[in-house]
Every structure is written in structure tokens, then in C-alpha cells.
Request: fold
Amino acid sequence: FRHGAGHPLPLDVLVVDEASMVDLSLMARLLAAVPAGARVILLGDKDQLPSVEAGSVIASLAPPEAVNRFSAGFAREFAQATGQSLPVAAVEPAGLP
Reply:
């Protein structure tokens, strides 16, 4: 791997699409390469595409009761912009306004 803890990726935000396909070993290496203070956004469906190797990272991170739930702030802004409502998470994600 070109990047790692000693040589982090030059980014502020990392978006990983189809993250359900990323296995535990690859996710560990990827996160080790993310610089301190950067945000990581994982997109994927734990029930759609399984990881290629061992470890279901998305399934472990997304308990069934948290799926398709949004922060209160995001749900409020979405409702103001679209007139539609979204389900709100019982617990706010850490570090978000």
C-alpha cells in the first residue's frame, strides 16, 4: 500500500461507496491512511453486497435500529427544503451539530 499511518492520504473527506464490499483487513488499512481530523463517509447497504473477504464491517457498524435514521438537524433541514419528513435517530451521531 502506498499510504498508511506514516504517509496519510492528502484529503479532508473520504467517501467510500459500496462500503459493504470492503473487508475488515482492507478497512483497517484504509482507516490507518486517513489523516487526523478528516471525515470518513461510508455508503453501502449491509444487505446488498457482502464483503469480498472476511469481516462484515458495514453490518457490524450499522445496527438494524439505526438503518435509515438521520440526525435531527439533517431531518429538519431536509423537511424545510423538500417538505418531506425523514425518520430521526434515537441517538445523535457523535460529533455532529
